[in-house]
Automatic annotation (TrEMBL):
<keyword id="KW-0675">Receptor</keyword>
<feature type="domain" description="Integrin alpha third immunoglobulin-like">
    <location>
        <begin position="831"/>
        <end position="1089"/>
    </location>
</feature>
<dbReference type="InterPro" id="IPR000413">
    <property type="entry name" value="Integrin_alpha"/>
</dbReference>
<dbReference type="InterPro" id="IPR032695">
    <property type="entry name" value="Integrin_dom_sf"/>
</dbReference>
<keyword id="KW-0472">Membrane</keyword>
<keyword id="KW-0325">Glycoprotein</keyword>
<feature type="repeat" description="FG-GAP">
    <location>
        <begin position="378"/>
        <end position="441"/>
    </location>
</feature>
<feature type="compositionally biased region" description="Low complexity">
    <location>
        <begin position="1154"/>
        <end position="1167"/>
    </location>
</feature>
<dbReference type="Pfam" id="PF01839">
    <property type="entry name" value="FG-GAP"/>
</dbReference>
<dbReference type="InterPro" id="IPR013517">
    <property type="entry name" value="FG-GAP"/>
</dbReference>
<dbReference type="GO" id="GO:0098609">
    <property type="term" value="P:cell-cell adhesion"/>
</dbReference>
<dbReference type="GO" id="GO:0009897">
    <property type="term" value="C:external side of plasma membrane"/>
</dbReference>
<feature type="region of interest" description="Disordered">
    <location>
        <begin position="1142"/>
        <end position="1176"/>
    </location>
</feature>
<dbReference type="InterPro" id="IPR048286">
    <property type="entry name" value="Integrin_alpha_Ig-like_3"/>
</dbReference>
<keyword id="KW-0812">Transmembrane</keyword>
<comment type="similarity">
    <text>Belongs to the integrin alpha chain family.</text>
</comment>
<keyword id="KW-1133">Transmembrane helix</keyword>
Length: 1229
């Protein structure tokens, strides 16, 4: 099945309706229930045995377990239908809330049949466990004698594990219910929470009390299968026969569970089952499974089987209320969609949560199965009710039931959030038809159009082409209406309508872009003739397409208005697709609005009126058809006139009782095509003329072919001659020569007579209408070349000539029926470009420097400052070239390593170029130099002083030059867009013409570099010179640059001479051709000679003083470090000794001094002074000294030893500062 997606908001219910455009919203019938009872949650149309029609409305929250109400068709009050749910269901508990009336179904809505009402939350207690079994009940045709289907309540009880799990005891059988006439004893039910919310579909045989259910295999938990259902016997087209099988479709919108392993859980499914014998004892398996495509979209929430493409087989419509529709730029996402699976019936979709209280969308079916925009949208604010409605569209019902007996199905909409139901009645449909006839009542136009009245003066106000003589045809127009339901109309009732006429209408305008054409309306095509030419040599020289391209209007109306002037008023004639009105903007012809009164005309298939105008003489009006040029009227095809209308029909008022007084017309059928045929044989049979065509041309030529020169003072003409002979046996109508040409370059020769210009860019020469067999006619068209029209920009134009005949006449042509004369447009110019470089010879020498970063001013770039000039002159007198450009190929860098993106600098452009241009001077005023020359800012931004070196402005050579203007200037289209590829190798040769005294042993080489030999990387500088006139004088561009010496030293040191070539190209910036002899441009090349003097100069470091300063500073630092180290080592201090004189230290009361210290002698002859409180003596700090002396051999009491005595003295003293102390040892052997 192919799916078509129609977007809405929050789809919850879909239902079949008919004639959807005529649902009236001005006189609704409102039925109200008790507050907070969900009155209107479900509804179903019903017909009682006494032919009393009405609606059964469910109110599942009323009372203890829910209630249902019977509402007669046009009454606002409803009566309760008493049903004791607990008693019928034999429940033995006190649990209420069964939701009786949640779903309902009837076998036949139009005939008395039983009604089924379900309560999905019906609860029963079994062995101290509560089972939410659900269940269904049945009422007879009189809505009496209710009984319960006990089998529908036992599905939960039969699950073996149900007693152990509360989830298995929650089944909700009866959430949906349905019937089908093919299987009257079968009751189709859905239980979405059966078996862990997998859901199920159940089929119950109400006669045999047998049942079957859908299989649980491959159904994941939380699928909620059975949330929606519909039944049909026309799903599979191959199943023909008197007793086709019945199929049931169950929707499973699912509960979005992200942790579920099954990837499709949460996207929703629809399963279609074959309703096999319920006594088989086996579960049903699906024959078709359709999955949703978006997680949490609730695909399958609503299901409808309906034939929307009128092929006899029902299609599937699936609601997905939370399908997310991607938001457009700057908008918010929308939710809700209807999926149409096509295998012409209309259907309605409810959107109860839409903005404003809910909506209902009504869609038209189509032959192709394509569902487009809704044909009618019913919004809550538009309903004429005095009660605010919420949740409108929760229930959409009646399925074609006619409540008011006017022959049209009505519509009931539930709004349970407001506890209300709205009944919308349908209005009867009438069909309009417009008649256009001649005064005698016929529809045939005489073939001799020249016999019609002359209305040239009357038609003079019409825009567009008209022949010297214009003919008019008087016609009568009137309007009638009929009833489509077969009921007789009232002759005295008339309806006003505004009619819009348009000749030769385009198909989108007439059909309003509807893809199917209403039955009984005419196609915009020519009817087939009774014979064909039967030869492969025939071609169609149809004139309709050519006339459309040229906006030629052969037929129009007196008093018509242009399409653009009437565009705002024309929108109301397009009731569904107003964009279709734009199709008339580009079509020839205008609008003729007429106000008419439509009169009743009964439908009598066996009766025809020869003179219908006699019946409606009082309402007919005159329309004058204008034939602008009788020679351009195609008499092989009928004159086609498109008609659209808007009828002023009465609108029902809020308290209207009968809809028969308020008819409505189909918005799709407010257009018509009227055809008026000509009175000749070729309108009833196919005429097959044979024509011989010969062309001749007179035009100036050059070596490239036909040419005209712009700006040439000589008279130039182009002449087209054609000869056409009818060599067949049938006449050729409307035989003409039509030539199109550029009106800005060519002007039709006025000496040929009036009436040839049929359009601003086309001329026509009529040969004959008709061209009878054996007749030969000639035609001539001549144009004058407008040579001074310099604003025209084209290199070539064409004069296209075509022989045209009637659109319905295939023609056998000997020769070519069409010819294209291509003419070149050129301007003869004489422009010179001269150039100089000052100086033209420069030198470089020395060694390579540090590079770019070591340069701060322009003089450090190189010694050679260059002035390059290019001068452009127009040498032809009385010549003005409207626009031209000069392209200077600037040698920016050398090729170098071609793998790199940049090379080394060669010519460094110091400043923006300047221009010397003297404009036209006014006598008596001083001549000033102002310029309109504009050079490309993009190239100059890249080239001019990119490193911001200091430039010496005082070195500008020309005092009368001014800077050029900067802007974006593109290449002329004829100029090459790229240079030749770079070459890594330099081309060298010996320097010619050696002097006699030169060193012949030394080989001197030279090389040539330019932008066109691959040695340089060049940037084109494009300058717009504007108008170039001989009288205004030349235009000189000046460029100041420096030769980058370092590049020459590094890359050209092996060459004695380097020739640098600079080129500039002038091109005219015009679209027509330029004749400069053998070329269309002028190019000048100048040469700069660069010599190497071969004497390298010593390189003086740039930062010598800095280097010296750094060396001195480094030496001083090293010296300081050495001094500090030596000082720390005591290198700069002398040794001093202090001896203590002998002193008696017996008097302890006297202060001690260093001289009084008495040493103690040990055996080792060691003398040690101990530090005592000091006093200052001669700059030293004296202290108490102690001396011990001992022998090296042992203690004092031992005897003398034999080894030599060694004595040592240790003196300890302190300097006056107290910071240093020295230990002085002396030893004696």
């Amino acid at each position: 099945m192919n799916a078509t997606l129609a977007y809405i908001v929050c789809v919850l219910h879909v239902v079949i309706v008919t004639n959807s455009f005529n649902i009236d919203i001005n006189a609704p019938i409102l039925k109200l229930g008790s507050v907070n009872t969900s009155f209107g949650f479900s509804l179903v149309g019903h017909t009682k045995p006494n032919s009393d029609k009405g609606i059964i409305i469910g109110s599942p929250k009323s009372g203890e377990n829910g209630e249902i109400y019977w509402c007669r068709s046009l009454d606002s009050t409803c009566s309760k239908i008493t049903v004791d749910v607990r008693a019928l269901a034999r429940t033995n508990n006190e649990i209420n809330g069964a939701l009786f009336g949640y779903s309902m179904s009837s076998l036949d809505y139009k005939n008395p049949e039983n009604v089924t009402v379900c309560a999905p939350k019906l609860t029963r207690s079994i062995v101290q466990s509560d089972y939410v079994t659900g269940g269904c009940f049945q009422l007879d045709a009189n809505l009496q004698d209710p009984k319960a289907f006990q089998s529908s309540m036992s599905f939960c009880q039969d699950i073996p594990e149900a007693a152990k799990s509360i989830d298995l005891r929650h089944c909700t059988i009866g959430a949906t219910v349905g019937h089908h006439p093919r299987s009257p004893n079968s009751l189709f039910m859905g239980g979405p929470y059966f078996y862990y919310a997998k859901g199920m579909g159940a089929i119950l045989d109400t006669e045999k009390f047998s049942r079957t259910q859908t299989s649980r295999e491959n159904i994941p938990p939380n699928t909620l299968l059975g949330s929606a259902l519909d039944v049909s016997d026309r799903i599979f087209a191959p199943q023909y026969g008197p007793d086709p099988p019945v199929y049931v479709a169950y929707g499973g919108p699912g509960v979005p569970v992200t942790a579920n392993e099954a990837k499709d859980v949460g996207t929703g499914i629809v399963l279609i089952y074959h309703s096999s014998d319920v006594d088989s004892g086996t579960d049903l398996n699906p024959v078709i499974q359709i999955n949703g495509n978006q997680f949490a979209s609730r695909f399958g929430h609503a299901v409808l089987l309906v034939d929307i493409n009128n092929d006899g087989w029902e299609d599937l419509i699936v609601g997905a209320p939370y399908q997310e529709i991607e938001a457009v730029a700057g908008g918010q996402p929308q939710y809700g969609a209807v999926f149409v699976f096509t295998n012409r019936q209309d259907f309605a979709v409810g959107a109860p949560y839409a903005t404003g209280g809910g909506m209902v969308f009504v869609y038209h079916g189509s032959r192709t199965g394509r569902i487009g925009l809704p044909a009618q949208v019913i919004c809550t604010p538009k309903l004429a009710t005095n009660v605010p409605l919420r949740g409108l569209g929760f229930a959409v019902g009646l399925k074609g039931l006619d409540l008011d007996g006017n022959g049209y199905a009505d519509l009931a909409l539930g709004a349970p959030l407001s506890d209300a139901v709205v009944v919308l009645r349908t209005r009867p449909i009438i069909k309009f038809k417009v008649h256009l006839v001649l005064p005698d009542g016929s529809t045939r136009i005489p073939s001799n159009l020249d016999s019609l009245p002359d209305c040239t003066a009357e038609a003079s106000n019409l825009p567009g082409y008209m022949a010297p003589k214009v003919r008019c045809l008087n016609t009568k127009i009137f309007m009638t209406y009929t009833s489509v339901d077969g009921k007789p109309c009232k002759p005295d009732v008339r309806y006003r309508a505004t009619v819009l006429l348009k000749s030769d209408p385009p198909t989108p305008w007439l059909r309003e872009l509807w893809e199917e054409i209403p039955a009984g309306s005419e196609e915009i095509t020519t009817q087939p003739k009774d014979s064909t030419c039967g030869s492969h040599g025939f071609v169609s020289l149809a004139s309709s397409t050519l006339f459309h391209d040229l906006s030629i209007v052969p037929v129009s109306f007196i008093g018509e208005r242009s399409v653009k002037d009437y565009a705002d008023q024309a929108d109301r004639f397009f009731t569904v697709n107003r964009s279709a009105s734009s199709a008339a903007v580009n079509s020839p012809g205008g609008y003729l609005p007429i106000d008419l009164e439509a009169t009743c005309r009964e439908r009598m298939e066996d009766r025809s009126y020869k003179y219908p105008v006699e019946l409606d003489q009082g309402t007919a009006k005159t329309v004058r058809i204008v034939f602008r040029d009788t020679k351009l009227v195609d008499q092989t095809s009928p004159v086609q006139i498109g008609v659209r209308w808007v009828a002023d029909l009465p609108v029902p008022y809020p308290t209207a009782g009968v809809m028969d007084q308020f008819p409505i017309s189909n918005p799709r059928e407010n257009s018509q095509l009227i055809k008026l045929n000509f009175d000749n044989d070729c309108t009833v049979r196919t005429c097959c003329p044979r024509l011989a065509v010969t062309y001749e041309f007179e035009v100036s030529r050059d070596k490239h072919g036909p040419v005209v020169y712009v700006g040439d003072d000589k008279a130039q003409t182009i002449t087209v001659k054609v000869t056409v002979t009818n060599i067949g046996t049938d006449p050729a109508f409307m035989t003409s020569l039509v030539s199109t040409y550029p009106p800005t370059l060519l002007e039709l020769d006025p000496t040929l007579g009036p009436g040839l210009n049929v359009a601003p860019n086309a001329a026509s020469c009529s040969l004959a209408n008709p061209l009878i067999p054996g007749e030969s006619q000639k035609c001539l068209l001549r144009w004058l070349v407008v040579a001074h029209q310099l604003t025209v920009q084209m290199a070539q134009f064409s004069v296209n000539s075509t022989i045209i005949t009637g659109a319905a006449s295939p023609v056998e042509v000997h020769g070519s029926p069409t010819h294209e004369l291509r003419v070149n447009v050129k301007m003869v110019v004489n422009v010179s470009v001269t150039g100089t470089v000052e100086p033209n010879t420069v030198y470089f020498s020395g060694n390579a420097s540090d590079g770019i970063k070591s340069i701060s001013a322009e003089n450090q770039i190189g010694d050679s400052r260059l002035l390059i000039k290019f001068t452009v002159r127009n040498l032809r007198n009385h010549s003005l070239i409207p626009a031209s450009r000069l392209i200077v190929d600037w040698p920016y860098e050398i090729a170098g390593d071609i793998k790199e993106s940049h090379g080394k600098y060669l010519l460094y452009l110091l400043d923006n170029p300047s221009v010397v241009q003297h404009q036209f001077s006014i006598p008596g005023e001083k001549e000033t130099n102002t310029t309109s020359v504009v050079c490309d800012s993009r190239a100059l931004k890249r080239l001019v002083n990119p490193h911001n070196y200091r430039i010496f402005k005082f070195l500008r050579p020309s005092s009368d030059s001014v800077p050029v203007n900067l802007g974006r200037v593109d290449f002329p289209s004829s100029h090459p867009s790229a240079y030749p590829p770079l070459s890594p190798n330099k081309m060298s040769q010996e320097v010619p013409g050696r002097n006699e005294d030169s060193d012949k042993q030394q080989k001197r080489l030279m090389t040539t570099v330019s932008c066109y030999n691959g040695q340089l990387r060049c940037v084109p500088i494009t300058c717009d010179l504007g108008k170039l006139s001989h009288k205004a004088g030349p235009i000189t561009l000046e460029f100041i640059a420096r030769l980058w010496d370092n590049t020459m030293r590094q890359d050209f040191k092996d060459f004695f001479l380097t020739k640098l070539r600079l080129s500039a190209t002038w091109r005219a910036d015009v679209k027509y051709g330029i004749d400069l002899g053998d070329a269309d441009h002028t190019q000048e090349t100048i040469e700069l000679s660069i010599f190497n003097n071969l004497e390298p100069k010593p390189i003086v470091p740039k930062y010598t003083a800095l280097y010296i300063a750094l060396a001195v500073f480094g030496g001083a630092v090293v010296l300081a470090i050495i001094v500090i180290i030596l000082k720390k080592a005591g290198f700069f201090k002398r040794k001093r000794f202090l001896r203590k004189p002998k002193q008696d230290n017996t008097d302890a009361s006297k202060p001690l001094d260093p001289a009084a210290a008495k040493p103690t002698t040990t055996s080792a002859s060691t003398t040690q002074y101990s530090r005592q409180p000091a006093v200052r003596t001669r700059g030293y700090q004296a202290g108490t000294m102690s001396m011990t002396s001992s022998q090296a051999g042992g203690p004092l009491d031992e005897g003398p030893v034999t080894q030599p005595a060694v004595s040592a003295r240790v003196f300890t003293f302190e300097e006056p500062s107290g910071r240093f102390s020295r230990r002085i040892e002396s030893a004696a052997y």
